[in-house]
Design goal:
Strand 2 and strand 3 form a beta hairpin. The radius of gyration is 15 Å and the shape is elongated. With 52 residues, the chain is mostly beta strands.
């Protein structure tokens, strides 16, 4: 990769709403939903956070 003298700082935000264990993660203009599976008392509405 070519050196540009620009330091990139990555950031992400996580929102926890009203659905138990569901989290919306946003970074770089993209988002994904994580949630615990039903067997762990989640709603299974997104990817298992431990699978990430």
């Amino acid at each position: 990769m070519e050196e540009t003298g620009i330091e990139l700082i990555e950031s992400a935000t996580a929102l926890i709403g009203r659905t138990q264990y569901q989290t919306v993660v946003n970074s770089g203009g993209h988002g994904l939903i994580t949630d615990e599976p039903l067997k762990a008392d989640g709603s299974d509405t997104g990817m298992n956070p431990f699978s990430l």
